[in-house]
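Hi all, long-time lurker, first post. I run a small reading group and we've been trying to get comfortable going from sequence to structure in the token notation. Rather than ask abstract questions, I figured I'd post a concrete chain and ask someone more experienced to write out its structure so we can walk through it together at our next meeting. Sequence below, copied exactly:
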Amino acid sequence: MRTIHQATPTTILRTKKINFRLAVICLTAASVGLPIAIISIAKLLLLGCVIAVPLLARDLPRNGASLLKTWTLPAVLAALLAFALSLLWTVAPQEEALGSLAKYGKLLVIIVMMALIRERREAVYALGAFALTQLLVVVSSWLLFAHLPVAWATSRTTLSHYTVFSGYLDQGIMSAVFAAVCWHLRDLVPGRYGPQFAIVVAVACLANVFFVMVGRSGQVVGVAMLSLAIMWQLPKKYRIVVAVLPFLLVLLLFVASPMMRERLTLVKTEVQSYSPEQEANTSSGLRLAFWRTAAQLIAQRPLAGAGIGSWTTEYNRLERLKNPAHKDIDPNGNPHQEYLYWGVQLGIPGLLLFAAMLLCILRDTMKMETPFARAAQSALLSLAVCCLFNASLYDGLIGDFFCVLIGLLLALGLSKPADSSPPGYAA
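-- Answer (accepted) --
Happy to help. Here is the structure in token form:
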């Protein structure tokens, strides 16, 4: 991978006006740290831009040709096409199936962000908007932890878990990923002390995740981000240490953080108390029960799955066979594991399709300059880790967060610098 040649963020950002298209892109980037209603509005405006730009633009986007050369574009389209085709055989009610397809439609945001962002200057603007709202969330969470009033906090767990706009699971994950973005892209922060400020923000984010938030998924992502960042700082001959680094970090945090110690101990207790013969009533127990059922469903329909949105219908069917008095779970549920969920809906090919999509995105990041590539790869690894414990793409808010951020980072790394960039600033 190449490194960024010397060019200041001021050089990247200067010149040219911010038009409506760029304003919508920035709003979308900023929205993923805010309430879900704002995210929905931003995505609606983004859709409007997708329709309007080809009709009103005098010329085609400069990065249009490069988008066609990516692996991400066909991978995302193939995934959505597979889900759409599964409507032909899904066992789910039509309303649930179409609702699930709409939820996976957020994958298009990755492509849309890459298509609408025309040059690196615009991507930096959008990244700045993203960073401002993520910083607002982290600072607000620390204020709540200090028992100071935060008038704009709307989360239902504001007082109990120091969350601002979302639940502790989503906020912990987003803060851990934001820390990685701050670290790897610290040289893009303007000002004499911009990089140092970015490092302080990254430390504040991780401290919030490990010592304030109770979300275990966020803590696992935080450990993964730390491990990856440390590995990249080591000489290549020592990078094998990454195999044991996560375990060392977990051990250190277990000793240093009462919150981490409490949550890890709770996981151990919940897993030990789980029994397939008894109804699970803990977070870990429910996940184990769901994963076990998902594996059974994949084994029953390994070639094509039960179709999009079929989890609730199939889960209730299996549970009624075991217990006729079973109370159906709510519609549009999921097994809290993205990999297994694709397997339930599309069979083993669905599992392979999901893995292939992640690998295609990874392959595109290999074309980027080193800092951009590392930021994008960190976000991609976070998604891969989160999907082990949650249906992170299917779920609202956190799924939007990953799709917007990955699309933005791909656009940042793959798009060309502004025309006004000085000679020597490589694309």
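A couple of things your group might point at:
Confidence is low (pLDDT under 50) at residues 5-16, 420-427.
The chain has one domain: 9-264+283-414.
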